Amino acid sequence: MNPIKVGLLGIGTVGSGVYNVLNRNQSVIKARAGRGIEIAVVADRDVERARSLVDASTEVVADAFELVQRPDIDIVIELIGGYTVAKDLVMQAIENGKHVVTANKALLAVHGTEIFAAAQRKGVMVAFEAAVAGGIPIIKALREGLTANRIEWIAGIINGTTNFILSEMRDKGLDFDVVLKEAQRLGYAEADPTFDIEGVDAAHKVALMSAIAFGVDVQFDKAYIEGITQLGAADIRYAERLGYRIKLLGITRRTAQGVELRVHPTLVPAKRLIANVEGAMNAVVVNGDAVGTTLYYGKGAGSEPTASAVIADLVDVTRMHTSDPANRVPHLAFQHDAMQTDLAILPMDEVVTSYYLRLRVSDEPGVLARIATILSDLGISIDAMRQAESDQVGGEETNQTDLVILTHECQEASMNQALAAMQALPSVLQPIVRIRKEELN
Ligand code: NDP
Ligand code: HSE
């Protein structure tokens, strides 16, 4: 059989990895796919650089829009990134009857519903394994490997940059700004790392996993997002002493009221495997009713790890290219007409979780009692509490101290009320630090 013809849009970090791995492993990939997979055309803005990266037999063009029109191309790989040009190219590829493989989580998180609907109408596949956790085959696991299960919850370290920053802050006791500079120097963080450190990249990815797990639309716009920019070294230290590590987690959970969808720094018990995922690595924990808890670990970014996922999609699409569209694995795991339209994403106020609180207080009689009363009046139960000795500055007592409280579970709305009331106490001297806590058991 002739090789299936692929057009590659963007030969940057991931695109060049895809080209190289496909070339290097072509015989084993062909044996698995059932036919050859040939990147026939590459489109990139920098044609000269692109030519230097490919064989003479691969055509290079500057105009990506020309590529998606070509009748000889069966599959388009979009590796340009962003929401604008990439969206137009993906939509045009679909309209022209091409299957699409993409690593673009931002595009699918924001425009996924429109893109998947268009693909459904045209009977083509949109595959996106590389969009979540890079080289880890988590989409395949959720969509196929765990298909027997009612998924209960997913919690993932799905941004390598922030995990690297948190690991370094903990190991070396460094402050956020110092480690961010190091992450940029090492090439983990983007030149503009806002999406990483503000939790947006992780929210893109957890919105995709949530859709597949629960059969709902991709609803990035309803996710609660909090990044790591406000985290201080002191909280990482206190968490450690209490037997926890702080990780930026993407969490989605099915509850009787709806689906939780959130990204925020989280205290995780240090004994959990996921708490020990360090550096730029990614890990995702999935809990299903039949299988129990499963863990997926690996590189969430990088040229060849991400290419591994893109090529897995290419092989899947090649295998299923000639099959009846109604008998393919659905884009979001559930059949198009069986999506859960009545399952809402919960507002953050309705989420139930437990908390770490740190209050900078005057070390004087009655402070603790007033704080405990506020919490108890709102039905919030204290799980553990620690008070450090009064700080000294230049040998003098400051009469200030850190009060660290772990709570049992309560509704976020109650905690917000408690925080407002505690913050108003004259003896609470600085903004209260609140970090959510998950036992993940
Ligand atoms: P790069 O910036 O390295 O590569 C993008 C390439 O596309 C560049 O060569 C760029 O050219 C080219 N390009 C930009 N605009 C156009 C255009 N209009 N027409 C043709 N070519 C164009 O990005 P990455 O490879 O890092 O990322 C690609 C996608 O993969 C993104 O969606 C990203 O989020 C995703 N991803 C990346 C991972 C990684 O580890 N890097 C991991 C997981 C997902 P120029 O350089 O001139 O701008
Ligand atoms: N910026 C992302 C990260 C790249 O740090 O994980 C992979 O999506």
Brief descriptors of the model:
36% helix; 441 residues; Rossmann fold; 19 strands; binds L-homoserine; 6-stranded parallel sheet; binds NADPH dihydro-nicotinamide-adenine-dinucleotide phosphate; Dihydrodipicolinate Reductase, domain 2; Alpha-Beta Plaits; 25% strand
Total separate domains: 3
CATH superfamily of the largest domain: NAD(P)-binding Rossmann-like Domain
**Which class of secondary structure composition applies to the elements?**
alpha/beta
List the total number of helices.
15
CATH class descriptor of the largest domain: Alpha Beta
CATH architecture of the largest domain: 3-Layer(aba) Sandwich
Largest sheet: 11 strands, mixed
CATH fold description of the largest domain: Rossmann fold
- Rounded to an integer in angstroms, the radius of gyration calculated over CA atoms is 24 Å
Number of strands: 19
Would you mind describing this structure in some detail?
The chain has helices at 13-24, 26-33, 47-53, 64-67, 85-95, 105-122, 138-145, 160-172, 176-185, 194-197, 200-214, 233-241, 303-320, 367-377, 412-423; strands at residues 4-9, 37-43, 59-61, 75-78, 99-102, 126-127, 151-157, 224-225, 244-254, 259-269, 281-288, 292-299, 352-362, 382-387, 392-393, 396-397, 400-407, 410-411, 433-437. It has 441 residues and is an alpha/beta fold. The mean pLDDT is 95. Residues 9-15, 43-46, 64, 79-81, 85, 103-104, 130, 134, 301-302, 306 line the site of NADPH dihydro-nicotinamide-adenine-dinucleotide phosphate (NDP). L-homoserine binds at residues 134, 159-161, 190, 196, 201, 300-301.
